[in-house]
Amino acid sequence: MRDIPERIRRLASDKALQVTVRVGKSGLTESVGQELEAQLTRNEVVKAKLNRGLAQDSAAREQLWQQLGEAASARLVMARGNVAVFWRR
User: Could you tell me how far CA 54 lies from the centroid of its own chain?
Assistant: First the structure.
């Protein structure tokens, strides 16, 4: 996390940043990863949200976020509950 610029961390924590990627009841599909990757080519940071009930606990959520980041070649900047923000250099 230390190699993420402060400017990116501020963007990620901005309450005005809207959720633009949703992980639905089908879970992490290839198209979700592709959508995140496509949005990261247009935007510096992208906010994603998991549907409620998709992960049983925080460890499962963290694992899902890591898998989504790997699928899109993105870095997880922050995660809070069912919402996470991704960035790609």
Answer: 15
